[in-house]
Amino acid sequence: MVVLLSLLLMYLPIGVLRENVPEVLLMTSSDASLVQRVRDEMGRIAQDYAIIHFTHHIAKVGQMNFLELNILVDPACNLQTIEIQDRLRERIWRASGLPLDSVWLTVNITADPRWG
Prior knowledge:
This protein is an alpha+beta fold and 116 residues long. The protein has helices at 2-9, 11-24, 32-49, 82-96, and strands spanning 51-61, 64-73, 103-110.
């Protein structure tokens, strides 16, 4: 009887684990529309600022969404001032469509291909 009850009750924790393991491992967000919105906006930004290449990683942990973008630029890129870089971050955040308090946005800008 105990074995039967244990097997029946094991179903619940396995279901919870299956849903939450991607969050624990910081795997890519399952929200495909969020990923697509960020990718589309980065495509437009790449044209506006002559970005050579960019990569992104989006993960959701609990209620927080972590967006990390690595942007490789030409040394003569026009992303030279903090004000312009902040506008870039604003565009990316707005494209995510998420409230500011639920997004951890990291934007790395470099001209060195090793870091891009």
